[in-house]
Write a structure and sequence with these properties.
The structure is a single chain. The longest helix is centred in the N-terminal third of the chain and has 24 residues. The chain is elongated. The strands form 2 sheets. It has a 4-stranded antiparallel β-sheet. It has a 4-stranded antiparallel β-sheet with strand order 5-6-7-8, covered by helices on one side. Helix 3 runs antiparallel to helix 4. It has a single domain, classed as Secreted effector protein pipB2 fold. Strand 5 and strand 6 form a beta hairpin. It is α+β, with helices and mostly antiparallel strands.
């Protein structure tokens, strides 16, 4: 009888632990998507938000624009670069879009310059890739496969559409020029 009681005392903490783990496993898990500062500003609620979008140009079916978002009630504004597909669906809610803050645009420009100067002139014997990723999941980069450099752009990491493929270095040159033009219009 004493042995059975000792065994039961050892079993109680295990049961409590398992019950706690089961309860914890039932809690909903929310995955927070990191966003750019301009996206956070544009999604403010309880105020009147004004968005002004200026077209800069197109590369490989991607429209590069400058976006200025203003809070008409409380004041304040944010600006950045917006990249979206040219042949986008009519409903903006279903449209994959990248919003880049000015510091992300600067980093993207530097990344493309580095790809052009230090990456595209190499011919490695193995698979190689180099990608820039922004806060909201926008990514662009290049990979060496089948003896040539290729590029790809994904507007956000949660989109189900295939990436937009770039010809290296030609399409990167066009995008670089568009980003430089856009950067001069961002405050």
């Amino acid at each position: 009888m004493l042995q059975a009681r000792n065994d039961m005392n050892k079993l109680v903490p295990v049961i409590v632990l398992l019950a706690g783990l089961h309860a914890y496993a039932q809690l909903p898990v929310s995955i927070e998507t990191p966003q750019s500062k301009i996206a956070q500003f544009a999604q403010r609620t309880g105020t009147l938000i004004n968005r002004q979008v200026t077209d800069i140009g197109v590369v490989r079916g991607l429209k590069v624009q400058v976006i200025v978002v203003s809070d008409m009630i409380a004041g304040g504004k944010a600006s950045g670069v917006k990249i979206e597909p040219v042949a986008a669906e009519t409903n903006p809610a279903n449209r994959p879009t990248a919003l880049l803050d000015p510091d992300e645009v600067d980093a993207l420009i530097k990344s493309i310059e580095f790809l052009k100067s230090d990456i595209f002139n190499t011919y490695p014997d193995v698979y190689v890739d180099a990608f820039y990723t922004a806060n909201d999941g926008f990514s662009i980069g290049a990979y060496f496969s089948e003896k040539q450099w290729r590029g790809s752009v994904r507007l956000n990491k949660y989109e189900s559409a295939p990436p937009v493929y770039f010809r290296a270095p030609d399409d990167f040159n066009v995008l670089l020029d568009l980003l430089r033009q856009a950067r001069t219009k961002i405050k």
